[in-house]
Structure formats: structure tokens, C-alpha cells
Write a structure and sequence with these properties.
- By secondary structure, the chain is α+β, with helices and mostly antiparallel strands.
- The chain has one domain.
- The protein is built from 1 helix and 6 strands.
- It has a 4-stranded mixed sheet.
Length: 178
Amino acid sequence: MNCRQPNFKSGQNNQKGVSILVALVMLLILTLIGVSSMNSSIVELKMSTSMQQQGIALNRAEELLRTGEASVDAILADPAAFDFAAAGDGYYITANAIDVYQIDWQGLVSIKPDANFDDTYVIEYLGAKAIPGESVKIAPDGRIIGGAVHTFRITTRSVAGKGAIRLVQSMYVSELAP
């Protein structure tokens, strides 16, 4: 009896081609998942960097605000009269009508305490304001006598990184006139 052995070689050759094709499809899917994850990571990195720069700009603007308030303290402590109407020094009066939302910081004369940064501030003297509920007397020249406070508005601008800009404002009130 002559038994023939089945020929398995032809079936094995077909199986090898299919396994390579399945492996290539799986590799393609894994590559797409990896690229997608990498793009998400890059976007998240840019977002966190932007938030960090915004935080730095805010911290520097608030520190600059304290510097401006110290400047007002120094003006009020000096018995010599300070002229807020003098041009070109970063100090302004209400008549100059500075709109902080429309300020051209490049063309505005401001106080820049550190040449290494693009951080600046302006101080506006808003004048004497009557305290509500207090008795006041108005002098012949229009000044308020008694029951009044002198108000200042300090506006700071800080720039950090690429486009991180922060504006911070403070109202400073004093019984002393500048």
C-alpha cells in the first residue's frame, strides 16, 4: 500500500503572507495612536507654558503695583509740592484722560524701573474727592476743604514670554494732598 503524505508546504507559504499583512496593519494602527498622543502632548505643553507665562506676567505686574504705591507714598511724604501736570515723567492728572483700555503703551511716557523687562506703570492723580456723608466746604478756588481724600490710580503693564501681557490697576487713597 502506497500512502501519499499530504503536501503542507503550499499551505504554509500562504499563511506567511497573511501574517505579514496583519502585522503591518497592526503596526500602522499603533503608529497612528502614537502620533495622536504626541500631538496631544505638544498642545498640552504649549497650554501649560502659556499659563506659566501669564502667571509670571501677573506676578511682575503686581510687584510693579507695589513699587508704584511706594512711589505715591514717597510723593506724599515729601513736603515739597509735586507737579502731576509736568509732561514726560509718567505721572498724570485727570485732565490727561488716560483710558487704560486704549493706552498706546509704546507712545505713552511711563515709568520703567528695570531696563531688562518691558514692564511699566503710570500714576494718575484723580484729585480730591468728598467722602460721602462728611461735611465739606468748597473753597473759592474750587478745592474741597475737610471731609475729602486724594485719590490716585496706578496702572501697571507687564509682558512675559510670547504675548503674555497683564494690566493691573490699584486705587490709592490718602488724606494728604500731593
